[in-house]
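Lecture notes, structural biology module. Today: joint structure prediction for complexes of two components.
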Amino acid sequence: MKKLYNYPAMLIICVLACISVVVGEVCILAKAMVLNPDYYLWVIDKKNVTDVLYNELDEAYEQLSVPTYIPKEVYMNSITREQLSATTRSVARSSMQYILGWTNDKPVIDYDFTQMENDITDYIETYSEANSIEKDDVYYETVENTIEVAREKLEPRLDVLLLKKISESRFTNQVRKYSPLVSAILSIAAVVTAVLLIFMVIINRRHIIDIIYWVGTILFVSGGLLLIPSLYLSLTNYFDGFILSDPTIYAAMTGALYGIVDRMVMVNIIMCCAGVVFIIFAQIAHSIRKSEIKRRREEMESIES
Amino acid sequence: MSNSDTVKGAEQTARVHKTTSSSRVLRTFTYVLTPFLILCILCSIGYLALYKPYNEFISNFNYVFSDVTPETKSLRTLNKYRDDDAPIQMHEIEVEVNGKTEQHTMVYPYYGDYYATLNCEAAGMKDIPVYSGQADDILMKGAGWYNASSYIGKPGNVVIAGHNHTDFYYLPNCKVGDTVTLETVYVKITYEITERVIFHETDYTYVEPTEDDRLTLYTCWNNGRLGMSEWRLCYICKPTNYEWKEVPEAE
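The predicted structure, tokenised, for the full assembly:
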């Protein structure tokens, strides 16, 4: 095997470089996924959240049909998957933009209930006329209350990732305060990594081929550091026990969490494999160089003799 | 070259070869194990750095992510709110009957369990199933016992609600003086209706705990109209007789 020169110094620099690479990787992950509104739109699309929401509404309105004596179809007639998808995406996008401080307009759930209100009012009116029910104040109060209850069944469910709820909490101020630091920390980590690599090259300038080995070691170790916890979360299905059992919120939240974990697993496996390849390549390069030197020495010896 | 020089040269060569063999082993170990050594060092640093925050936040994480998984829930055939083999919850209580203290066994239901049967024959309410809880899916199956109210058989206000178009359809037919029975596996209680009330949905007076023992039955009050009413029709019943039963011990 190849001898490693300037081992103690290179070991220390390698440890520091691994830390800066891990910090940089975490910042890239945060920027690309956690602090990126488009990621949450991807979760809604890829994890079939709209279908889960539609089925949940179907069940909720079936249960509402019992105390109101209004068939489920009256409520569901105006609800389409396309409208649900558009609204949930809009709520998620506007909420994330508000949380990140990209806009100061508070997110609102902009769903058109006109059709549903008309359907409910028409149905109650038809029934009342058929049964000679007087349209007094109590009648109109009941119609209004029914429409209000029907809206309450739908509206909160459109905040599938609870981002609107989060945007109304104190957490938003914390995110607005610290999210700009992510880019700064990423830049610092990149500069530190570059400086440490330059130090490695300077220290090992007489054995430059060693750098391949140390770069491989940095990749392997920093990949392994994040791979261990992300593999644990993935293989133990840690997020399956998520406490909110509402089907839509459960599907959306666990989908978002597993999406991040799966991406971390994939990226870090690639880094570990790349690291191993670099380490093996360094040894192969050294063996080729050594055999080349040996061949030249033998040639010179044969010429001298 | 003399023989001693040749021997010395051979010895030196042998020494070099000996050093190279052992150093080769050391090099191999160093080359292969260095990445793992650095990984261990950084894991240790991470452990030390994160030990305190981990202990601070782990209880929160366990609370958020330790609920029953969908896989486990799919194995529940009897009641989606508990495992099929959940142990029966039996409790001994002391009650005063005719001035004497008696000991009886009560069975506490899990949320979603079938709890009691309600009858009011004068109004046409026969064998109405009463479940523990008042979630929408439970009220689809039968009437719902409000599980923040008193257990059936214990002192206080027992509150039961039902939908006006299904199980409590005939509740408006009840009159003051009618007899209502409520039967569980451990007791059968006979009540007499003493009061009829209509209250607003935001008025929680009638579902709150009371000093006296009573049964409160309520439903939505539409008065023939469609839709979700803001008003509730309620009957307050006073207990007139308790028939305690022998509860077989759980296996």
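Point to remember: The domain at 89-244 of chain B is CATH 2.40.260.10 (Sortase; Chain: A;).
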